[in-house]
Protein backbone atom coordinates (compact mmCIF):
# COMPACT_ATOMS: atom_id res chain seq x y z
CA UNK A 1 0.00 0.00 0.00
CA UNK A 2 1.23 3.47 -0.87
CA UNK A 3 1.35 5.66 2.22
CA UNK A 4 -0.30 9.06 2.17
CA UNK A 5 2.21 11.89 2.63
CA UNK A 6 1.84 15.65 2.86
CA UNK A 7 3.13 15.76 -0.74
CA UNK A 8 0.36 13.44 -1.91
CA UNK A 9 -2.20 15.71 -0.22
CA UNK A 10 -0.72 18.63 -2.17
CA UNK A 11 -1.04 16.64 -5.43
CA UNK A 12 -4.63 15.79 -4.57
CA UNK A 13 -5.46 19.49 -4.30
CA UNK A 14 -3.64 20.04 -7.60
CA UNK A 15 -5.84 17.57 -9.45
CA UNK A 16 -9.02 18.47 -7.58
CA UNK A 17 -9.35 15.19 -5.67
CA UNK A 18 -11.05 15.83 -2.32
CA UNK A 19 -9.24 14.79 0.87
CA UNK A 20 -11.11 12.69 3.49
CA UNK A 21 -10.16 13.18 7.13
CA UNK A 22 -11.64 11.87 10.40
CA UNK A 23 -10.60 11.84 14.04
CA UNK A 24 -9.22 8.77 15.83
CA UNK A 25 -8.01 8.34 19.39
CA UNK A 26 -7.50 4.60 19.77
CA UNK A 27 -6.19 1.48 18.05
CA UNK A 28 -9.47 -0.31 17.30
CA UNK A 29 -11.18 2.66 15.67
CA UNK A 30 -8.06 3.68 13.73
CA UNK A 31 -7.85 0.13 12.27
CA UNK A 32 -11.36 0.43 10.87
CA UNK A 33 -10.89 3.95 9.47
CA UNK A 34 -7.54 3.13 7.85
CA UNK A 35 -8.90 -0.10 6.36
CA UNK A 36 -11.83 1.88 4.93
CA UNK A 37 -9.33 4.06 3.08
CA UNK A 38 -9.39 7.36 4.98
CA UNK A 39 -6.67 9.75 3.74
CA UNK A 40 -5.86 11.53 7.01
CA UNK A 41 -6.51 10.61 10.66
CA UNK A 42 -6.50 13.44 13.16
CA UNK A 43 -5.69 12.61 16.76
CA UNK A 44 -7.72 15.62 17.78
CA UNK A 45 -7.74 17.25 21.19
CA UNK A 46 -11.49 16.59 20.87
CA UNK A 47 -10.38 13.42 22.69
CA UNK A 48 -10.78 15.65 25.74
CA UNK A 49 -14.55 15.73 25.09
CA UNK A 50 -15.13 12.41 23.35
CA UNK A 51 -12.77 10.13 25.28
CA UNK A 52 -12.46 11.82 28.68
CA UNK A 53 -15.87 13.52 29.01
CA UNK A 54 -14.56 17.04 29.60
CA UNK A 55 -16.72 19.97 28.54
CA UNK A 56 -13.92 21.60 26.53
CA UNK A 57 -10.65 20.64 24.83
CA UNK A 58 -8.60 22.62 27.36
CA UNK A 59 -7.88 19.97 30.04
CA UNK A 60 -6.22 17.29 27.86
CA UNK A 61 -2.47 17.01 28.44
CA UNK A 62 0.48 16.43 26.13
CA UNK A 63 1.08 13.01 27.74
CA UNK A 64 -2.53 12.03 27.09
CA UNK A 65 -2.31 13.19 23.45
CA UNK A 66 0.84 11.09 23.02
CA UNK A 67 -0.95 8.04 24.48
CA UNK A 68 -3.83 8.45 22.02
CA UNK A 69 -1.49 9.15 19.09
CA UNK A 70 0.75 6.14 19.70
CA UNK A 71 -2.34 3.87 19.85
CA UNK A 72 -3.52 5.24 16.49
CA UNK A 73 -0.09 4.95 14.85
CA UNK A 74 0.13 1.25 15.79
CA UNK A 75 -3.12 0.61 13.91
CA UNK A 76 -2.59 2.30 10.57
CA UNK A 77 -0.94 1.18 7.34
CA UNK A 78 -1.80 3.87 4.79
CA UNK A 79 -3.18 7.13 6.15
CA UNK A 80 -1.32 10.24 7.34
CA UNK A 81 -1.57 10.77 11.12
CA UNK A 82 -1.83 14.36 12.36
CA UNK A 83 -1.82 15.13 16.10
CA UNK A 84 -3.17 18.25 17.82
CA UNK A 85 -0.79 20.13 20.07
CA UNK A 86 -2.99 20.52 23.18
CA UNK A 87 -3.83 23.79 24.91
CA UNK A 88 -0.92 25.04 26.99
CA UNK A 89 1.77 23.06 25.16
CA UNK A 90 2.72 25.70 22.57
CA UNK A 91 1.24 29.14 23.30
CA UNK A 92 3.90 30.16 25.81
CA UNK A 93 6.98 30.41 23.62
CA UNK A 94 8.48 28.82 20.55
CA UNK A 95 11.02 26.62 22.33
CA UNK A 96 8.26 25.10 24.48
CA UNK A 97 6.21 24.61 21.29
CA UNK A 98 9.13 22.89 19.57
CA UNK A 99 9.70 20.66 22.61
CA UNK A 100 6.02 19.62 22.59
CA UNK A 101 6.06 18.88 18.85
CA UNK A 102 9.23 16.83 19.14
CA UNK A 103 7.80 14.81 22.01
CA UNK A 104 4.73 13.95 19.90
CA UNK A 105 6.83 12.94 16.88
CA UNK A 106 9.36 10.93 18.92
CA UNK A 107 7.04 9.22 21.38
CA UNK A 108 4.03 8.48 19.14
CA UNK A 109 5.48 7.99 15.65
CA UNK A 110 2.89 10.34 14.13
CA UNK A 111 3.61 12.18 10.88
CA UNK A 112 2.56 15.78 11.55
CA UNK A 113 1.12 18.13 14.14
CA UNK A 114 -1.71 20.67 14.09
CA UNK A 115 -2.01 23.88 16.10
CA UNK A 116 -4.69 26.56 16.46
CA UNK A 117 -4.13 30.20 15.57
CA UNK A 118 -2.51 32.56 13.08
CA UNK A 119 -0.04 35.41 13.50
CA UNK A 120 0.05 35.03 17.30
CA UNK A 121 1.74 31.60 16.96
CA UNK A 122 3.84 32.27 13.85
CA UNK A 123 7.19 31.98 15.67
CA UNK A 124 6.25 28.60 17.09
CA UNK A 125 4.99 27.40 13.71
CA UNK A 126 8.21 28.50 12.01
CA UNK A 127 10.42 26.91 14.67
CA UNK A 128 8.62 23.57 14.52
CA UNK A 129 8.73 23.59 10.71
CA UNK A 130 12.45 24.37 10.77
CA UNK A 131 12.95 21.19 12.82
CA UNK A 132 11.42 19.21 9.95
CA UNK A 133 8.04 18.60 11.55
CA UNK A 134 5.08 19.16 9.16
CA UNK A 135 2.54 21.59 10.61
CA UNK A 136 -1.15 21.96 9.84
CA UNK A 137 -2.90 25.21 10.74
CA UNK A 138 -6.39 25.60 12.23
CA UNK A 139 -8.42 28.83 11.94
CA UNK A 140 -12.03 29.92 12.43
CA UNK A 141 -13.76 28.43 15.46
CA UNK A 142 -10.68 27.27 17.34
CA UNK A 143 -12.04 25.42 20.41
CA UNK A 144 -8.96 26.10 22.59
CA UNK A 145 -10.09 29.76 22.53
CA UNK A 146 -13.69 29.03 23.50
CA UNK A 147 -13.51 31.20 26.61
CA UNK A 148 -12.37 34.12 24.46
CA UNK A 149 -15.20 33.58 21.94
CA UNK A 150 -17.80 32.78 24.63
CA UNK A 151 -19.88 30.74 22.17
CA UNK A 152 -19.56 27.87 19.67
CA UNK A 153 -21.43 29.82 16.96
CA UNK A 154 -20.13 30.50 13.44
CA UNK A 155 -16.95 32.65 13.25
CA UNK A 156 -15.88 35.38 10.81
CA UNK A 157 -19.33 36.47 9.66
CA UNK A 158 -18.12 40.07 9.95
CA UNK A 159 -15.69 41.46 7.39
CA UNK A 160 -12.95 42.43 9.87
CA UNK A 161 -12.70 38.92 11.32
CA UNK A 162 -12.91 37.47 7.79
CA UNK A 163 -10.04 39.70 6.64
CA UNK A 164 -7.91 38.66 9.62
CA UNK A 165 -8.65 35.00 8.88
CA UNK A 166 -7.55 35.39 5.23
CA UNK A 167 -4.36 37.16 6.33
CA UNK A 168 -3.64 34.42 8.90
CA UNK A 169 -4.24 31.70 6.30
CA UNK A 170 -1.78 33.33 3.89
CA UNK A 171 0.74 33.73 6.71
CA UNK A 172 0.49 30.06 7.68
CA UNK A 173 1.03 29.05 4.06
CA UNK A 174 4.00 31.42 3.77
CA UNK A 175 5.49 29.91 6.96
CA UNK A 176 5.41 26.51 5.27
CA UNK A 177 2.35 24.75 6.72
CA UNK A 178 1.29 21.77 4.57
CA UNK A 179 -2.43 22.23 5.15
CA UNK A 180 -5.08 24.19 6.99
CA UNK A 181 -8.27 23.29 8.85
CA UNK A 182 -11.11 25.83 8.74
CA UNK A 183 -13.78 25.28 11.38
CA UNK A 184 -17.31 26.69 11.36
CA UNK A 185 -17.05 29.69 9.04
CA UNK A 186 -19.25 30.80 6.11
CA UNK A 187 -18.83 28.66 2.97
CA UNK A 188 -18.08 31.75 0.85
CA UNK A 189 -15.17 32.74 3.09
CA UNK A 190 -13.80 29.18 3.12
CA UNK A 191 -13.95 29.19 -0.69
CA UNK A 192 -11.99 32.45 -0.83
CA UNK A 193 -9.31 30.94 1.42
CA UNK A 194 -9.12 27.64 -0.52
CA UNK A 195 -8.76 29.57 -3.78
CA UNK A 196 -6.15 31.96 -2.37
CA UNK A 197 -3.92 29.16 -1.01
CA UNK A 198 -1.97 26.48 -2.86
CA UNK A 199 -1.91 24.17 0.22
CA UNK A 200 -4.96 21.96 0.91
CA UNK A 201 -7.74 23.51 3.01
CA UNK A 202 -9.85 21.02 5.00
CA UNK A 203 -13.22 22.16 6.25
CA UNK A 204 -15.50 21.27 9.16
CA UNK A 205 -18.69 23.30 9.02
CA UNK A 206 -17.02 25.35 6.27
CA UNK A 207 -19.05 24.30 3.25
CA UNK A 208 -18.19 22.32 0.14
CA UNK A 209 -15.81 24.68 -1.69
CA UNK A 210 -12.68 23.53 0.12
CA UNK A 211 -10.16 20.77 -0.66
CA UNK A 212 -11.39 18.20 1.85
CA UNK A 213 -13.61 17.53 4.84
CA UNK A 214 -13.04 16.46 8.44
CA UNK A 215 -15.55 15.29 11.06
CA UNK A 216 -15.28 13.86 14.55
CA UNK A 217 -15.74 10.11 13.96
CA UNK A 218 -17.85 9.55 17.08
CA UNK A 219 -20.24 12.28 15.89
CA UNK A 220 -20.60 11.02 12.28
CA UNK A 221 -21.10 7.45 13.51
CA UNK A 222 -23.77 8.57 15.99
CA UNK A 223 -21.87 7.31 19.05
CA UNK A 224 -22.19 10.72 20.65
CA UNK A 225 -25.86 11.54 20.96
CA UNK A 226 -26.57 15.09 22.00
CA UNK A 227 -24.24 16.96 19.62
CA UNK A 228 -26.28 17.94 16.55
CA UNK A 229 -24.83 21.00 14.79
CA UNK A 230 -26.07 21.79 11.28
CA UNK A 231 -22.75 20.78 9.67
CA UNK A 232 -22.85 17.24 11.08
CA UNK A 233 -24.10 14.44 8.83
CA UNK A 234 -24.73 11.19 10.71
CA UNK A 235 -23.74 8.08 8.75
CA UNK A 236 -24.86 5.62 11.45
CA UNK A 237 -26.73 5.54 14.75
CA UNK A 238 -24.23 3.49 16.73
CA UNK A 239 -25.34 4.75 20.15
CA UNK A 240 -28.73 3.06 19.70
CA UNK A 241 -27.21 0.00 18.03
CA UNK A 242 -24.70 -0.50 20.83
CA UNK A 243 -27.21 0.12 23.61
CA UNK A 244 -29.55 -2.42 22.01
CA UNK A 245 -26.79 -5.02 21.81
CA UNK A 246 -25.85 -4.49 25.45
CA UNK A 247 -29.51 -4.72 26.56
CA UNK A 248 -29.79 -8.03 24.69
CA UNK A 249 -26.64 -9.32 26.41
CA UNK A 250 -28.01 -8.34 29.83
CA UNK A 251 -31.31 -10.14 29.12
CA UNK A 252 -29.44 -13.25 27.94
CA UNK A 253 -27.32 -13.32 31.09
CA UNK A 254 -30.30 -12.78 33.41
CA UNK A 255 -32.36 -15.46 31.62
CA UNK A 256 -29.44 -17.91 31.59
CA UNK A 257 -29.58 -18.01 27.78
CA UNK A 258 -25.90 -17.04 27.59
CA UNK A 259 -23.66 -18.98 27.43
CA UNK A 260 -25.27 -22.00 25.78
CA UNK A 261 -23.74 -25.47 25.33
CA UNK A 262 -21.78 -24.52 22.19
CA UNK A 263 -20.35 -21.53 24.01
CA UNK A 264 -19.18 -23.70 26.92
CA UNK A 265 -16.24 -26.10 27.36
O1 LIG B 1 -9.87 18.08 17.72
C1 LIG B 1 -10.54 17.94 16.69
O2 LIG B 1 -11.34 16.99 16.53
C2 LIG B 1 -10.35 18.91 15.60
C3 LIG B 1 -11.22 18.79 14.38
C4 LIG B 1 -12.64 19.08 14.69
C5 LIG B 1 -10.71 19.62 13.26
O3 LIG B 1 -9.50 19.76 15.72
NA1 LIG C 1 -8.66 20.00 17.77
Describe the structure.
It is found in: Cytoplasm. The protein has two domains: 229 residues, TIM Barrel (Alpha-Beta Barrel), CATH 3.20.20; 29 residues, no CATH class. Helices cover 42% and strands 14% of the residues. Strands 1-2-3-4-5-6-7-8 form an eight-stranded parallel beta barrel, surrounded by seven helices. β4, α6 and β5 form a beta-alpha-beta unit. It is globular. It binds 3-methyl-2-oxobutanoic acid (KIV) and sodium ion. 3-methyl-2-oxobutanoic acid binds next to β6.
Q: Which CATH class of the largest domain applies here?
A: Alpha Beta
* CATH architecture name of the largest domain: Alpha-Beta Barrel
Helix content: 40-55%
Estimate what percentage of residues fall within beta strands.
5-15%
CATH topology group of the largest domain: TIM Barrel
Secondary-structure content class: alpha/beta
List the quaternary state of the chains.
single chain
**How would you sum up the global shape?**
globular
Low-confidence spans: none
Distance between the termini: 41 Å
Radius of gyration: 20 Å
Domains (count): 2
Secondary structure tally: strands? 8
Specify the number of helices.
11
Largest sheet: 8 strands, parallel, barrel
Protein name: 3-methyl-2-oxobutanoate hydroxymethyltransferase
Pfam families: Pantoate_transf (PF02548)
Organism: Catalinimonas alkaloidigena
Active site: 183
Quick overview:
By secondary structure, the protein is α/β, with parallel strands linked by helices. The protein is built from eleven helices and eight strands. It has an eight-stranded parallel β-barrel with strand order 1-2-3-4-5-6-7-8, surrounded by seven helices.
